[in-house]
Structure formats: structure tokens, C-alpha cells
Amino acid sequence: MLVTEGRADVAWKLLMQDTNPSWLYQVSRGATTVWETWEGYTRSGKAKMSHNHFALGAVARFLTEHIAGITPIEPGYRIIGVTPSIGGGLTSAQATIRTPYGEVLSAWTRDGDEVEFRVTVPTGAQAQFHPLGGTQAQQLPPGTHVLRRAVAGLRVED
Known about the structure:
Maltose phosphorylase, domain 3, globular
């Protein structure tokens, strides 16, 4: 994954640009599924390979684990890592994951110099909330939590 190799900047670019190669290029061409190739069509307009393919579908992992920041720290999400990334020109993001304990939610909204985070932890689980740039994880028990942070205290990937 680009992020784990230190290239979150490239992953953000692939997500946000609408020229080839990118996921938004496919959307701009009318895609409702992920194509097997970045281009999707030959120059004459004929479909190239599969138009319902997972090869480039790793974008879902980037959205869930990087932008929303939801990762399992222990099997089954008994302990949930919530480390959202702010950037890419986005002003908000939200993702949910169903776990054996229930639904986990991570959402954030950037408003000027502040980011509001909303985290829902299911009963029987706990979360370690750690916005990028923070020094220490905050332990969150089951329930819904609203946390605010100044952008100045966060690593923003714009």
C-alpha cells in the first residue's frame, strides 16, 4: 500500500485527480464499478478488459483505513485503532465498519482551523483514538464520542 511505503501523497493524488490514472477518472467516464485497467476503453471506444474488477479496488482500504482511520488492533476489532488522516482537499469524511461487536464509525469535519471527530465504539470493544500529529492515543470506551482538535496540532496532508 502506498501509505505504508511513505507515499500517502501519491495515494491522495490517485484518489482526488480526475485524469488518468485515478479512481475519479473512471467515475468521470461513467464507471459505477472499478475497472481492471486505469483507461477502461481503447481509443476506438471498445471496453478494455473487465469493468467489474478488484485489481484497483484497494481504494476502499485507503478510504477506510487511512482517511477514516479505522483499523483492527486486536482480532475482530475488540480493540479498534482510529487514526484519521486530514487532507487531500477534503473537508469531511465518514466510514463505518460492521464488526462482531457492532458498528464502528469514524467521521471528521474540518471547519477552518478546527477538526471535529466523531467516533462510535460498539459495546464490548474499545478504541484508541490517535489523530495524526497527536502525541498520545486517547482511550475511548463504548459509546459515541465527539472530539475537537485544532488543525495546528494535526498533520494535514494537503
